[in-house]
Write a structure and sequence with these properties.
Layout: H1 5-52, H2 54-58, H3 64-95, H4 98-118, H5 122-125, H6 128-158, H7 164-172, H8 174-192, H9 194-201, H10 203-207, H11 209-220, H12 227-234, H13 242-249, H14 251-260, H15 262-282, H16 287-315, H17 317-330, H18 332-339, H19 344-352, H20 355-370, H21 378-394, H22 396-408, H23 410-430
């Protein structure tokens, strides 16, 4: 049957619109993955350097133990800054849009990391070196704090709403990609020449951030603003002060989102940062072995994170997430027992085993958190909830583990991981599973004021 010209034109326009939308969905997913990969590459570079290089470069007069503590203290500063970044960029992300905000966070992270790569050590400029290191780490933390929720929303709001778990898991892949790039670069340089690595070659991966940022900007500039945020602008429903509004109306969701991450974030940084020091200084094995173990775990997560994000679209966010939280507690003692054998293969297995329960949580985590805030407050709300965990979980974890090991033994670290799992299971029981909610219309249930929020 031949359509009348008017109907044929409408069908052609509809097909063209669909092609444009599908292209934007793909671009949004790629832009989210590329951007978060670069940001986490920079963030993990710092963690690896803090465990292996920074004690000698920036704290040369301290003992090995004190130097490691001081180095991990600067590492924790970045985590403390992340809620600040979430508040700042959450405000603008819900005011002016996801795209513009994400370009700023990417630039800030890349420039701060490149400056770490040219920062002289304490032997050259004295106490100014660690002071400047802390400032640059603060800038890194602020940038990462504003990056996560924007990347998640960019992908999730462009994608099909029935597949939000899968779409929101794509930015999460940026973590293992960044981990692989960061530790991979450090591993390659460390294995090639140990003396050069500690003297100057560790700076090369930091300087490479500039090239990666250029690639990330090129991709992100091609993505249009999300249709869900565009509708808010069209309806003039944009919140005036998103960060304050979300804290006033949804403090319970922010708190539960933070507690939700206890069993995911604290153990992750124990295994990916502290384990490097544990393997090198306590087990007296090579730095390369620890880096190899972390790399294997990151490679596993590349496959597992989208798998479990997709599973949560059918099985439910709560069910999948609770399974991962329980497994993280169950594997705590076996993981350390494997590492303590000092056998290379078992050490790698002990570190890499974290990838399974971590991925079970990290896959559905982004959609689970973001769905508990209305679209008009989603950038600020999900970002604050996600990044507040940095204060209570990710930042303190390597520092606490370093302190607990000589004072209470590795068993105390395992008990700490189990305690984190218990807190997360409580949060899972209290945070609703809203995977089937229509985020373009349905308000979040039961805000503090009792009134429905816009969005």
């Amino acid at each position: 049957m031949v359509l009348p010209p008017e109907q044929a034109g409408q069908a052609s326009t509809a097909a063209g619109d669909e092609r444009v939308r599908n292209r934007q969905i793909r671009l949004a997913a790629v832009a989210s993955v590329v951007g978060t990969s670069i940001e986490w590459y920079d963030f993990f570079l710092y963690g690896t350097a803090a465990a292996i290089v920074f004690p000698a470069v920036f704290f040369p007069k301290s003992s090995a133990y004190a130097g490691t503590l001081e180095s991990f203290a600067t590492y924790a500063v970045g985590f403390a800054a992340r809620p600040v970044g979430a508040a700042i960029f959450g405000h603008w992300g819900d005011r002016i849009g996801r795209k513009a905000t994400l370009i700023v966070t990417l630039l800030m992270m890349g420039l701060a990391s490149a400056l770490v790569g040219v920062l002289p050590g304490t032997a050259t400029i004295g106490v100014a070196a660690p002071v400047l290191l802390v400032i640059l780490r603060l800038l890194q933390g602020i940038a990462v704090g504003g990056e996560w929720s924007g990347s998640v929303l960019l992908s999730m709001e462009w994608g099909q709403q029935r597949r939000r778990g899968l779409m929101a898991s794509w930015p999460q892949i940026g973590v293992p990609i960044g981990l692989l790039l960061g530790t991979g670069a450090m591993t390659a340089i460390a294995l090639s020449d140990q003396s050069a690595f500690k003297a100057w070659a560790w700076r090369i991966p930091f300087l490479a951030s500039l090239l990666l940022v250029a690639i990330g900007l090129w991709v992100r500039l091609k993505v249009l603003e999300t249709p869900m945020f565009a509708q808010l602008v069209q309806r003039k429903s944009v919140a005036r002060i998103p960060t304050l509004e979300v804290l006033r109306r949804y403090p319970r969701q922010v708190l539960l989102s933070a507690l939700l991450r206890m069993s995911e974030q604290a153990p992750f940084y124990i295994y990916s940062a502290f384990a490097l020091t544990y393997i090198k200084d306590h087990l007296h094995k090579s730095e390369g072995l620890g880096l190899a173990a972390v790399t294997v775990g990151g490679a596993l997560e590349l496959i597992l994170i989208p798998m479990f994000g997709n599973l949560s679209d059918t099985a439910g966010r709560r069910r999948v997430y609770a399974t991962g939280a329980a497994l993280i507690g169950v594997t705590a003692f076996p993981a350390f027992l494997l590492m303590n054998t000092r056998a290379a293969g078992l050490v790698i297995l002990g570190v890499a085993i974290i990838a399974i329960p971590h991925s079970i949580q990290y896959g559905p985590q982004a959609s689970y958190i973001a769905e508990n805030f209305p679209t008009s407050l989603a950038y600020a709300g999900s970002g604050l909830g996600y990044q507040t965990a940095s204060l209570i979980a990710g930042g303190p974890a390597p520092l606490l583990a370093t302190w607990m090991l000589p004072n209470f033994g590795w068993q105390a670290i395992c008990v700490y991981i189990i305690a984190c799992a218990v807190l997360t299971l409580i949060a899972v029981a209290l945070l609703p599973d809203r995977r089937q909610a229509d985020l373009t219309e349905a308000p979040v249930l039961a805000p503090v004021s009792g009134r429905a929020a816009p969005g």
